[in-house]
């Protein structure tokens, strides 16, 4: 073991023995940093410890009193429910013995609604609704600012059935429609046999607790929450503040009843139970906010340290000036290295470590340059071949259908109509087989698409409607060639082919700040949600496998990959679709002029 330790020590100290630069840096660090570390650590630790004790005691006291105040507010809501439960009008309604007497039944119902109205208007602005469910008569009373009605329901409403199945008489549930509200529910039991005969619920705004929660001194970095017994956040909603740190709410499930505190590496978590209701009041304080208060003490140590560092730097500069000339020579040699082209100079003949480094850089630069040139040449040839192959693609079915249509038009249509179709097909071929360019203007792409759609409109004259909406400023932007026609072909093949009735397709070009969005939409059959999610995942991953591709057809994945290759991962193709409504495919590219987009 001693021999091995010696070898480790020699291996670690060997660089310092061979380099005067490292010796100088190490000496400067020791002289300047160690006093700063010693003073700062001692002062910060003492300040942090005292601040931690003070924060813990203050927050524990605040949590205790805040919990009492919130419990009192919940008790007042309970009293509102009790006032309905013990009201004579509810007893009269439950004891009504003549269900066929409509007049008597109507009076009992009106009295019950009047009782709920009295409770509603006396509860204050935070109670926004009251609901009473009676199991025997299957009657649901609802009273709020928007409705005042009595309905007969079939079966027990889900919120009450779930509570009774769990054998609970009291529950607080967050509102699924509005995270700023919760529902307080209490069962009604018959006195004689304690059977559940109904339930009363209050629809309450969480904001009634805001003033009370303000007693906890919520800051920008502090989080104050109300959770249920399982650690789920009840209030406030995540939209109002960031989610709590991972693991904090899970740890609260195992704590003992009553107030307490959990300390983690990054947070202090204070908690307290809210009486009766099974909720917890939680406050999360970052450790950094406590340490920040010790900064004033640390400031004096920093000032002393800065002075020491400045003195050490002055001494080190003089020494380094005498010894830095070889390093300057090395830096100039590195600047002369050219990894792509041109000579890289002659290697140094110095015998010391600087000469060794220069010779190593010289050899490495030569190998890297050869590798870059080889890779660049291979990738350039591959990219050129792929683009030429893509531009030679025309869907064979489209070509076959077009030629058949031209043949039938020769005998049934005017010569000028037949010439228009032949000219459009010719222009399409001219655009496809023309000397390939990586990028084309939007104007040229829209002209190409226009020829394609004129042919399709001749094939489906009574069904197809096509429109283009574009801003003139966007017509000269550059995008990968043959980016729009695949989107239209996919719309015909997968959206409109089996759709009855009129077909509507359109292209909209919009300038949005620094980007341009080109949207192709149709009113076709759309896609199922699961198929849409799979397609989005493939587009996001820019898979090499073509999407919606048959034969030589260019797929959406191909279009998305070429856009990302030219403009970066922040751009590409997105798709939205609703089954039975239609599909929208959007291409997003940067807003660049024709000159800027040339490659």
Automatic annotation (TrEMBL):
Keywords: ATP-binding, Cell membrane, Kinase, Membrane, Nucleotide-binding, Phosphoprotein, Transferase, Transmembrane, Transmembrane helix, Two-component regulatory system. It catalyses: ATP + protein L-histidine = ADP + protein N-phospho-L-histidine. SMART domains: HATPase_c. Gene3D superfamilies: 6.10.340.10, Histidine kinase-like ATPase, C-terminal domain. GO terms for molecular function: protein histidine kinase activity. Its EC number is 2.7.13.3. Residues 394-593 form the Histidine kinase domain. It is a multi-pass membrane protein. SUPFAM superfamilies: ATPase domain of HSP90 chaperone/DNA topoisomerase II/histidine kinase (SSF55874). The keyword Isomerase does not apply. It is found in: Cell membrane. The chain crosses the membrane at residues 20-44, 298-321. Residues 321-373 form the HAMP domain. This is histidine kinase. It comes from Paenibacillus peoriae.
């Amino acid at each position: 073991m001693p021999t091995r330790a010696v070898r480790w020590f020699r291996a670690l100290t060997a660089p310092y023995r061979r380099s005067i630069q490292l010796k100088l840096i190490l000496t400067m660090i020791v002289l300047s940093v160690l006093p700063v570390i010693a003073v700062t650590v001692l002062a910060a630790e003492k300040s942090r410890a005292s601040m931690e004790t003070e924060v813990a005691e203050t927050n524990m006291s605040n949590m205790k009193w805040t919990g009492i105040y919130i419990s009192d507010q919940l008790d007042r809501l309970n009293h509102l429910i009790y006032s309905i439960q013990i009201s004579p009008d509810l007893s009269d309604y439950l004891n009504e013995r003549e269900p066929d007497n409509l007049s008597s039944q109507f009076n009992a119902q009106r009295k019950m609604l009047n009782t709920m109205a009295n409770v509603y208007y006396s509860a204050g602005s935070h109670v926004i609704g009251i609901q009473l469910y009676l199991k025997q008569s299957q009657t649901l009373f609802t009273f709020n600012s928007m409705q005042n009605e009595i309905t007969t329901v079939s079966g027990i409403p889900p919120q009450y059935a779930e509570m009774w199945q769990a054998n609970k008489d009291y529950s607080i549930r967050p509102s699924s429609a509005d995270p700023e509200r919760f529902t307080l529910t209490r069962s009604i039991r018959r006195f004689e046999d304690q059977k559940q005969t109904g339930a009363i619920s209050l629809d309450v705004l969480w904001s009634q607790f805001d003033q009370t929660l303000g007693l906890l001194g919520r800051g920008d970095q502090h989080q104050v929450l109300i959770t249920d017994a399982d650690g789920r956040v009840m209030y406030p909603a995540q939209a109002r503040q960031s989610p709590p740190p991972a693991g904090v709410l899970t740890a609260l499930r195992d704590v003992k009843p009553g107030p307490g505190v959990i300390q983690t590496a990054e947070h202090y978590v204070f908690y307290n139970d809210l009486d009766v209701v099974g909720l917890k009041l939680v406050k999360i304080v970052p450790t950094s906010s406590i340490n920040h208060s010790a900064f004033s003490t640390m400031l004096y140590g920093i000032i002393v340290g800065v002075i020491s560092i400045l003195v050490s730097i002055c001494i080190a500069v003089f020494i380094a000036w005498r010894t830095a000339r070889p390093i300057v020579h090395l830096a100039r040699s590195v600047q002369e290295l050219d990894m792509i082209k041109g000579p890289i100079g002659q290697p140094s003949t110095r015998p010391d470590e600087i000469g060794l480094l220069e010779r190593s850089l010289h050899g490495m630069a030569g190998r890297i340059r050869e590798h870059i040139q080889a890779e660049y040449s291979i990738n350039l040839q591959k990219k050129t071949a792929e683009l030429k192959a893509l531009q030679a693609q025309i869907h064979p079915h489209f070509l076959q259908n077009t030629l058949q249509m031209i043949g039938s038009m020769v005998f049934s249509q005017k010569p000028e109509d037949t010439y228009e179709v032949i000219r459009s097909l010719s222009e399409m071929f001219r655009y496809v087989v023309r000397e390939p360019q990586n990028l084309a203007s939007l104007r040229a792409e829209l002209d190409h698409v226009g020829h394609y759609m004129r042919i399709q409109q001749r094939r489906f004259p009574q069904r197809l409607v096509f429109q283009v909406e574009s801003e003139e400023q966007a017509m000269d932007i550059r995008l990968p060639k043959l980016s729009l026609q695949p989107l239209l072909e996919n719309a015909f093949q997968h959206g409109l082919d089996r759709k009855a009735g009129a077909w509507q397709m359109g292209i909209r070009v919009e300038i949005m700040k620094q980007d341009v969005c080109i949207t192709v939409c149709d009113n076709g059959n759309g896609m199922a949600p699961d198929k849409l999610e799979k397609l989005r995942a493939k587009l996001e991953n820019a898979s090499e496998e073509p999407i919606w591709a048959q034969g030589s057809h260019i797929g959406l994945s191909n279009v998305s990959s070429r856009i990302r290759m030219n403009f970066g991962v922040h751009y590409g193709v997105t798709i939205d679709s609703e089954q039975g409504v239609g599909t929208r495919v959007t291409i997003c590219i940067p807003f660049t002029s024709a000159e800027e987009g040339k490659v």
